[in-house]
Every structure is written in structure tokens, then in C-alpha cells.
Amino acid sequence: MSNTQQPDVKDSNDPRQCLLVAALRLFAEKGFVAATTREICEAAGANISAIRYYFGDKAGLYRAVYSEPLIKMPARGNRQRYANLPIAEALELFFSDFLTPFKLGDDIGLVMKLHYREMLEPTGAWQKEIETEIKPQHEELLSLLKQHLGVTEVDIDMQRLAFAIVGMGVHMFVGQDIVAAIAPQMLTTPEAVDILAKRLSGYALAMLNNEAQRRAEEGAV
């Protein structure tokens, strides 16, 4: 997801932007197949021919909604940001960056919901995101783990650990409706998001230390 700031879409009189906003909400809630072009145009206050004019077809509209920077997102993938920090600080910063979207207002929830719906109901956009966003972030985390464990090669146990750690953050997005129903106070304010990042980094450090102990006991290091 891009980091370029766009105008406030809620107040936009631009027909194209109105279509993007309406489509974001409907695609996020219903998915690509179930959301119809007619209801998107009705929500945007646009003529049905506007989609053809601006995007070519429904698939073109979806690609634009998925890839265009409707909302400013935090920069990711800069390994130097974490490399020289103590592991506890690096993990806390990692989770702070990971959870930052929860501080960016209601629309970011729709953006994230759309991206995780794409994961479950892929149209092809998800594979591109894996290559450009997910893999670099995963490699970034592996670099931290290797540094702390004092190893040079990534093995399957390190992959298991990396997926377990990042999974704690991923669940906050995938399961945000569940979180909102059970413990909404976890994500309601920027301060609450900061506390969550701190707690998750502590849990991740405990997992990492457990893996270090296992490797020491088995002579794997």
C-alpha cells in the first residue's frame, strides 16, 4: 500500500473519488463478486456508465480501490530502522509500525478489511501484495530473529517462530470484528494501540527466548 497522502475522500466532489470510496466500502463488506456495480454507483451518486468511463469495468475499479493510496499508510520495509536496536526495542517498534493503521481512522479499517478479504477471496491482487509487502516484512522480522539467536541461516523452526510472532499482529486485523465484540478497549485509542504493541512485543520476546533456550538445550545453535 502506498504512502502518498490523498485529499479527504469524505468531502470529495470528484465523481471518480466518490466511486473509489463507495467501492472501498462495498468491496470490503461484500467482496468483489457480491458487490454490484449498480449499488456502488448508487452509493457514489454516480451514473452506471461512470465506472466504464473512469475504470473500464468492475475489475478495473477493484484494482484501483485495492492499489490506489486513498489513505496515508506507514512506511515499511526499512531494515535499518530496526537493525541496530536491542531486540526488545526492535520488536516493540516492529509491532508499533505494524499496528499503526489502527490509529488512522475508520476508513483504514475498510482498507485493511479489503486487503484481508482479498487474501481469503483472491483476485490476483493478493499475490502482488505478497511479493511487494508481505515477503519484505517477513524477511525483516527474520533478520531480527537471526541477529538475536546468533545464527546465519534461516531454518524451518525460525520460520515457524516468525509466523507465530507476526500472527499475533495479523489476528488484530483479520479478527478486528471479534476484538471489537469481545474487548473493544484494545483498539479504541492511539494510546491503547501503543499498549497493545508493547504487550505483543513482550509476548514475542518470550517466544524468542524460549526458542533460544530450546536451541541451546538441543545444541542447535
Concise synopsis of the structure shown:
This protein has 221 residues and is an all-alpha fold. The chain has eleven helices and no strands.
Describe the 3D structure.
- The longest helix has 29 residues, at 190-218.
- The chain is mainly alpha-helical and 221 residues long.
- It has 2 domains: 9-67, Homeodomain-like (Arc Repressor Mutant, subunit A); 80-218, Tetracycline Repressor, domain 2.
- It is 71% helix and 0% strand.
- The chain starts with 14 loop residues before the first helix and ends with a helix.
- The protein contains 11 helices and no strands.
- The protein is elongated, with a radius of gyration of 20 Å.
Write the layout of secondary structure elements.
Blueprint lengths: L14 H20 L2 H8 L4 H7 L2 H10 L12 H4 L3 H13 L6 H15 L4 H25 L6 H19 L1 H7 L7 H29 L3
Helix pairs in contact: 1-2, 1-4, 1-7, 3-4, 6-8, 6-11, 8-9, 9-11
Quick one: CATH class of the largest domain? Mainly Alpha
The total count of strands amounts to 0
Overall average residue pLDDT: 84
Strand proportion: under 5%
Which residue ranges are poorly predicted, with pLDDT under 50 across at least 5 consecutive positions?
A: 1-11, 72-77
Shape annotation: elongated
- Oligomerization state: single chain
Radius of gyration: 20 Å
- The name CATH uses for the topology of the largest domain is Tetracycline Repressor, domain 2
The profile of the biggest β sheet is: none
The secondary-structure element order is HHHHHHHHHHH
Report the total helices: 11
| Class based on secondary structure composition and strand pairing | mainly alpha
User: How many domain units?
Assistant: 2
Could you give me the name of the CATH homologous superfamily of the largest domain? Answer: Tetracycline Repressor, domain 2
Distance between the termini: 37 Å
CATH level-two architecture of the largest domain = Orthogonal Bundle
Helix content, binned percent: over 70%
